[in-house]
Design brief:
This protein is of the alpha+beta class and about 500 residues long. The protein has six helices and 33 strands. Strands 13, 15, 17, 18 and 19 form a five-stranded antiparallel β-sheet that branches. The termini are far apart. The relative contact order is 0.08.
Length: about 500
Amino acid sequence: MMKKILGKIVFIVTIIIFPIIGNAKVVLQAPDTFYKNDIVHFKIVATGTDINLPEIKNIGGEVVQRTGTSQHTTIINGARSYQFSQSYTLKGKSDIHIPSFEIMIDNKIEKTKAKTIKMLKVEKTKSDLYDLKISIDKKTVYVGEPIVFTLKFKYKKDLEIVSLDFNKPDFESFWVKELNPQKSQNNYTQYVEQEVKYLLFPQKAGSIQVEPLKIGVTTIKNNSYGKTFYLSSPTVTTPVYSNGLEIDVKPLPKGINLIGNFTIKSTIDKSSIDQGDAISYKLYIEGRGNIDDLDEVVVDIPNTIIYDNPSKKEYNIKDNLYGGKYTKTYSLIGKESFTIPSIELKYFDNKTNSVKIIKTKEYRIKVNTKEVKKSKLEIAAPTKPLSSNLEQKVTVVKISNKNNIIFFTLGFLSAILLVSIYFFWRKKETKKSEIPLLKKVRTTKTPNELFKILLVYINIDKELDKIIYKLEKLSQEDYKKEKRNILKVLKELIEKDIKLDQ
């Protein structure tokens, strides 16, 4: 009896539906509605022997992605035809207007029907089985002021949940830091509760809407027939929506980009130095607030050489308050006494709703002058020829022609020997003059040691200056590699000075 009824149903569906599908060469399959930010699926189904589907990249400014294809072959009365389907997805942010597409089928242009998919207004899901709620610790804030955003989801303990489909919220107009997720179970109720917290930092002023969030709850379908018929229990996914939120974000006072509570201080390693020596100046900024938005602090002091080392930034969260520490070190070299000016920091105190200005102390640095070699790299003064200051006595002696030839030959050989001895001695003395500086460089073990040795030679040569400026930033490993290049440059400078002296 059941088989006869099913047979009649199949027959009726076949004679009613098949002619419609059979006559349609191309069909657009798409839903009628969706909720904001849902992933919308649609499909184009074409039937024929030669099918050429168009390439769809975007609709209404939203990117369209292909998700899959399928093909079926049908043979009727010996005639073969194909049914080809292509699936697509796009993110729905407003009503979606799918235009008519032209598709070439069996050398004929067929068109799909245009369709508009309406976006529905999301409303919070009300159910005794589950609940999703979002909240914030304050509704009125300033730009950059942190907001604690809390997401709470609860469901019945006896609900057979297979999985929860939840994507991290995409907070537009906010910079986001996720706090440690928390999970709690209340044994005195019939619900399991889960909680996730985020810190939100608004990046622009105005009224900002936080759209409702969604969790896809996949549960085992309550159907005894399905549980015994299938190898695994069938499931059903239910979308659960939260409430929405509105946040009023106020602009910070003009010229201010920090908000919170901060401290600033500085230190120096000494207040008196010799000319050519360096002083270490350190700056510390610490506090709770949007310290990420702190601009790099630049120190400018006339008539000084400043080595601006990279800053060090450390961030953390304490009691749901974001903050951290900013540290920067400067190496300062002055030719004469100078003053390190006070560094000023302005920020907006959100507790008193006022702008605060904090400063470091000013330092007066004394530079002790000393004689500095300005043009030579420890090169000894050229030795004058031995014969330059000697008085020569000439005695006329009468000798024969034969003796003339012998004396001339001996004199010539003696002259060559003396010249050779002179140049050998000159070279040896020059080599000795190189040893002190080069030996010091070779024996240095750290960049800082070499930095102190070469400071007195600043402004002698541009290549040497580049090396000196790099030394304080070099790691120990890089210094070992750079040492050869330093020795090479020094040798070239020494040879250059020798040639100028000759």
